[in-house]
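Translate sequence into structure tokens.
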Amino acid sequence: MPPLDIPTYALVSLGGVTVGLSLFAWDFSRWFASHKKRFSPKALRQLAPFLLCLAYGTLLILSAGGLIGAAADWSLWGTNMVGEAVLVYGVGGTSPDVTRGSFLALTPGGHAVVIVTTVVMLAVSSRRGFRWDFVRGVLAGVSLGLASSVAGVAGYVLAPVVSYAGDLVVGLL
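Result follows.
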């Protein structure tokens, strides 16, 4: 068990991935429809906060535990339950487990990066007010971070990069 004896489950179902992809599709399609020049700096600048929140959510679910990890785990449980309800009762499907076989964990430096990023997220949110696009991005990242498919590629990419960078900055390397 992680510190504070808070259990973490870190299992994602097809329902959770469906919710994560739906949240991603919501913001991406609204951004896509609102810009004719999609690769202009102005258009990409408006997409950047959502993508950063997506990456932050992925890092949260890769955390080892504690209060922040438990909040991410409970969020994952919630998206799994909502997605399973929609798949089972909405379209009559099933919701199997789609968690990747190898679990990527952050190093101590990676956990430090998560704490610093959490402080930055709180600072930005307190300055600009509550933003639903941040919530959707973080929930999408939490839902997709452990998936074994292409949807979970952010976990494969982010975990080693953030862990290495965090270890390098705090002097663990």
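Note: The radius of gyration is 16 Å.
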